[in-house]
Write a structure and sequence with these properties.
Helix content: 55-70%
Radius of gyration: 20 Å
Strand content: 5-15%
Distance between the termini: 32 Å
Largest sheet: 3 strands, antiparallel
Number of helices: 14
Length: 285
């Protein structure tokens, strides 16, 4: 998951520019030109987009490619050439929604059958690439639904919150103490009585704001895993578990028992954020 601050907003800005100024909604340009277009696409409000830099432009392009609304190539004569298709967004979002439903049904079926091998299969999500991409970047779905007026409000807000001192923002990082403690502190575990838990009552109490807070904490968990110094195998295992939880939380009726079982898996309990997620879930009771 791309975690560069503002990259998802810029991705929408580039789609907006392609729709307005591209050839029938398609923008073709090299990287240098796109950096100039990015500044124009994000210039809303009285304050310029000080937060933009080349890393953010590159990350925005990677988001668009992952979400299947852009393609890119590199050659020895340029820094990269890209095609951004604004017309594809609606169709791709609809396909991603169908994939997401299939993904959730697969997980729910595996849960009902007690098939943890399928739930934890590291290659399972590869069968649903658009669902994964659009789950990682929900702002694309929001832009598709709410359009340019909504996007311009977001960009104005982003510009007003930035300043010249933030010309070179880096990747969003969790508190350094969280990462260092995750590596050095004894493993924190939280084991609710999942067999006797009132899951129906829990689901009722986790509606609305509380559910949004849980999603935010899971997002923080994913970010901590990304920025951790764990070995690649441990990091990949933890990410697959966390990605499965992200998908399950998008279900109309999240399967809380399965979510808690995944959170209690050894590969996730090593991260302090996991305890925060569980505390939110069970603290609502």
């Amino acid at each position: 998951m791309n975690q560069v601050l503002g990259a998802d907003l810029l991705a929408c800005g580039l789609l907006s520019h392609a729709k307005a100024y591209g050839e029938k909604g398609i923008l073709r340009a090299d990287f240098k030109s796109l950096t100039e277009i990015a500044e124009s696409a994000c210039s809303y409000g009285s304050v310029p987009a000080f937060w933009l830099n080349d890393d953010i432009v590159q990350s925005a392009l990677e988001i668009l490619i992952e979400a299947a609304v852009a393609v890119g190539t590199s050659d020895p004569y340029s820094s990269g050439f890209y095609k951004i298709d604004a017309n594809a967004l609606g169709k791709v979002v609809a396909t991603a929604a169908k994939e997401n439903l299939s993904w959730l049904k697969t997980l729910e079926k595996a849960d009902a059958e007690g098939d943890m091998d399928t739930i934890l299969d590291p290659k399972l999500m590869d069968r649903f690439p658009l669902a994964k991409a659009h789950s990682n970047y929900p702002i694309l779905k929001h832009y598709n639904e709410f359009g340019d007026d909504w996007l311009h409000r977001q960009l104005r807000s982003m510009n007003e919150r930035s300043s010249p001192s933030e010309v070179n923002p880096t990747k969003m990082k969790p508190d350094d103490s969280i990462i260092s403690q995750a590596a050095s502190e004894p493993k924190i575990t939280y084991h609710p009585a999942t067999d006797s838990q009132d899951w129906t009552g829990l689901a009722t109490k986790l509606d609305g704001v509380q559910l949004l807070l849980v999603k935010e904490q899971v997002g923080a968990l994913v970010l901590t895993i990304d920025q951790s110094e764990c070995d690649d195998r441990t990091k990949k295992n933890a990410k697959k578990h966390a990605d499965a939880i992200v998908a399950l939380l998008e279900a109309p009726d999240p399967p809380w028992k399965l979510i808690v079982e995944l959170l209690n898996s050894p590969v996730l309990t090593a991260f302090l954020n996991t305890a925060a997620v569980l505390a939110l879930i069970f603290g609502s009771q």
